[in-house]
Amino acid sequence: MTDAVIPAVIDFQSPFIGHLPGYLATSEATAPGRPAQEVYEAAVMEQWRLLLDSPESQDESLVHAFLERHPSLLPGAYSVDGDSGHSAFPSAVITRPKLPGLSDREPDFMWIASDSGSLYPILIEIETPHKKWFHGDRAEIHSAFTHAQGQLAEWRHWFNTGHNRSAFLEHYEIPSDLARRRLEPRYVLIYGRRENYVNSRRRQGKRAELARDGERLMSFDRLTPAKNSVLFSCVRKEQDGYRVVVVPPCLTIINNSERYQPVSGWGEALDACHDMPHTRRQYLKEQLHLLTTNPDAYVQNDRGLRYRRPQWM
């Protein structure tokens, strides 16, 4: 008789939330150059699935911190209405964004996405993977879900009241070319797991009717790395501008100063990214300092024509 194998208990808090075991050693091979995007995406999805399936994901603050470190998992960098070719402003997700004058609970995250005609604040509410869409084995919507969806209605009401849209553009320092576009907020609720409704046609049908105007409702199973996942960090909006909260270990930058000038704190955030090789951190610090202090660093001049060849670094 063989002894039963007891599954290992994973500590998602140690050495820090969002740690990717083995990723540092793998990315040392390409440092200080940029790491392979597919390697990062495979590593982050492995840890993400383990977290979703674990009891520890009942802690919403832990899930929030994981998503701060790996923001490409959050929907909306390129809008939630198809796949825009325009990157989010300011090349990062905003954690715990405030809506001026609203004292109730702020969103967990927000992207400011755009296309050629519209500006899309994507306000995201996360709950936990363990919450239920439906009561027991019935097709009755769970009260916890109703409460969470009510938060989206609060934000929609805020945007539709008085001069709040102008206040939003001012508070988030939206560049003039974006501020002139049509403002179309979107509201995303990430809640529970697919298994709570996928095997019931009645539940699936009822769930399909739940979303109201501008809302996107999804389970945690839906979250996967976005297009160009290595380009995005996580920032906080403060009184004096944007400040980096955390960068992912895969961070790749583009030689365009406009993407990084609105944000401060790059050096500190890179120093705190312990899944990134030291030589890669130093390289990015040097490049970001150059881009934020010398906007024309990568601008070339050919007989009076100024241009910049995009380069991923």
How does this structure look, described?
The protein is an alpha/beta fold and about 325 residues long. Helices cover about 30% and strands about 15% of the residues. It has 9 helices and 11 strands. The protein has helices spanning about 25, 35-50, 60-70, 145-160, 165-170, 175-180, 200-210, 265-270, 280-295, and strands spanning about 90-95, 110-115, 120-125, 180-185, 185-190, 215-220, 235-240, 240-245, 265, 300, 305. The strands form 2 sheets. Strands 1, 2, 3, 4, 5, 6, 7, 8 and 9 form a 9-stranded mixed β-sheet that branches. Strand 10 (about 300) and strand 11 form a beta hairpin. The N and C termini lie far apart (about 55 Å). The mean pLDDT is about 90.
Helices and strands in order, then pairings?
Blueprint: H1 23-27, H2 37-52, H3 60-69, E1 89-95, E2 109-114, E3 118-126, H4 143-159, H5 164-171, H6 176-179, E4 182-183, E5 186-190, H7 201-208, E6 215-218, E7 233-238, E8 241-246, E9 263-264, H8 266-271, H9 278-293, E10 300-302, E11 305-307
Parallel strand pairs: 1-7, 3-4, 3-5, 5-6, 8-9
Antiparallel strand pairs: 1-2, 2-3, 7-8, 10-11
Quick summary of this structure?
This protein has 313 residues and is α/β, with parallel strands linked by helices.
Tally of DSSP β-strands: 11
End-to-end C-alpha gap: 56 Å
Biggest β-sheet strands, sense, barrel: 9 strands, mixed
SSE arrangement, N to C: HHHEEEHHHEEHEEEEHHEE
**Rg:** 21 Å
Q: Which key phrases capture this entry?
A:
globular, alpha/beta, 313 residues, two-stranded antiparallel ribbon, 29% helix, 9 helices, nine-stranded mixed beta sheet
